[in-house]
Design a protein that fits this description.
This protein is an all-beta fold. Helix content is 0%, strand content 49%. Strands 2, 4, 5, 6, 9, 10 and 11 form a 7-stranded mixed beta sheet that branches. Strand 7 and strand 8 form a beta hairpin. The protein is globular. The termini are far apart. The relative contact order is 0.32.
Length: 124
């Protein structure tokens, strides 16, 4: 079983950048597709980005495409989310999640492992 811990959230002005980290322990993160989700108050959890365990292919939600980049560091057993050109509507609690299936999915219900989340707040 893999344990996930997010970090890197904070308060930033619109147009700024943040880099979120998802550190894994227990098992190599390379065994999993890893995704970032976010949840704003009063809203459902939504898919942000994913990186696949085979070939490190990536896929993004339209709302973040061109601004966010997901990447994997095998040596550090971690996945990152670089967020640029942040907007107030990006404000949310950000979670990383893992799934052992190699199939791409944006459905949060399919993911087996979750971190506790890290808060991102973007001021206007």
């Amino acid at each position: 079983q893999v344990q996930l811990v997010e970090s890197g959230g904070g308060l930033v002005q619109a147009g700024g950048s943040l880099r979120l980290s998802c550190a894994a322990s227990g098992r190599p993160l390379s065994r999993y597709n890893v995704a970032w989700f976010r949840q704003a108050p009063g809203k459902e959890r939504e898919f942000v980005a994913t990186i696949l365990r085979i070939g490190d292919s990536t896929y993004y939600a339209d709302s973040v495409k061109g601004r966010f980049t997901i990447s994997r560091d095998y040596a550090r057993n971690a996945v990152y989310l670089q967020m640029n050109s942040l907007k107030p509507e990006d404000t949310a609690l950000y979670y990383c999640a893992g799934i052992s299936s190699g199939q791409l999915t944006t459905d949060a219900r399919a993911y087996d492992y979750w971190g506790q989340g890290t808060q991102v707040t973007v001021s206007s």
